[in-house]
From TrEMBL:
This is Ribosome-recycling factor, chloroplastic. It comes from the Eukaryota. It comes from Anisodus tanguticus. Its main location: plastid. One of its GO terms (molecular function) is ribosomal large subunit binding. Responsible for the release of ribosomes from messenger RNA at the termination of chloroplastic protein biosynthesis.
């Protein structure tokens, strides 16, 4: 059963066409019999509902226009703003996490100066469960060339010692039954050059990650444009703002890189 209607103003405002075809605007995708006439129909920002006699047609009413079919719907301003905010929030959270990862990687690299962060990545087999060393012991620096590890549970000393020996920190632990002392060896010129290359590589990997996050956000904006939720000018403005955020986090990576480079 197909009934033609004159398009109402709300529908035309949501569906832009150069010319209104003479083909039926709505077709009912339902098999039913009724002698009643269409007595009412209504449109909202999201859906169109029609009533035939005493029956109200649910989302079975579909758009039939130039061989295209689909439920009549357009996003509200609130929905669009929510999507934009979600993209922006995700970008900043991921970029901030990237900077923190770069900083963490830098801190775990052994330099000539002692730092508790040198042991951050060491995991200890504590009663059959792998845990981070810093969660079961306090790590301090009595001086610029040594580390002191004081376990909260002295029975874990052997496990901590074993974990340090098995790690790649390049330091030999001295266990006196109470604490573990580590002497940080001085760096040779060759080792400094090697560390400088490692730090530079990690900084560049961080920047690549930032660029990838920017790329993902641009794709999300372009998707909204294709869905007619954003105009081309909207996307240009958002892309410009995104570039400013990207530049800001690139500078953060440069800052932590220069700080690490000084102590290598």
């Amino acid at each position: 059963m197909t009934i033609a209607f004159s398009p109402a103003t709300p529908i035309r405002s949501q569906l832009t066409q150069k010319s209104i075809p003479s083909k039926p605007l709505f077709c009912f995708q339902d098999n039913f019999r009724t002698s009643g006439n269409v007595v009412s129909w209504a449109a909202s920002a999201n859906y169109v509902s029609l009533r035939v006699g005493a029956r109200r047609l649910q989302p079975l009413v579909k758009l039939s226009w130039e061989k295209r079919r689909g439920i009549v719907r357009c996003a509200t301003i609130e929905e669009i703003e929510a999507e934009k905010s979600s993209i922006e929030k995700d970008v900043k959270e991921r970029m901030e996490k990237t900077v923190e990862n770069v900083r963490s990687n830098f801190n775990s690299i052994r330099t000539g100066r002692a730092s508790p962060a040198m042991l951050d990545k060491i995991e200890v087999d504590y009663y059959g469960t792998p845990v981070s060393l810093k969660s079961i012991a306090q790590v301090s620096t009595p001086d610029a060339s040594s580390l002191l590890v004081q376990p909260y549970d002295k029975s874990s000393l052997k496990a901590i010692e074993k974990a340090i020996v098995s790690s790649d920190v390049g330091m030999t632990p001295n266990n006196d039954g109470e604490v573990i002392r580590l002497a940080v060896p001085q760096l040779t010129s060759d080792r400094r050059k090697e560390l400088s290359k490692i730090v530079s590589k990690q900084a560049e990997e961080g920047k690549v990650a930032i660029r990838n996050i920017r790329r993902d956000a641009l794709k999300a904006y372009e998707k909204l444009e294709k869905e007619k939720k954003l105009s081309e000018d909207n996307v240009k403005d958002l892309s410009s703002d995104l570039q400013k955020v990207t530049d800001e986090y690139m500078k953060k990576i440069d800052t932590v890189f220069k700080q690490k480079e000084k102590v290598c």
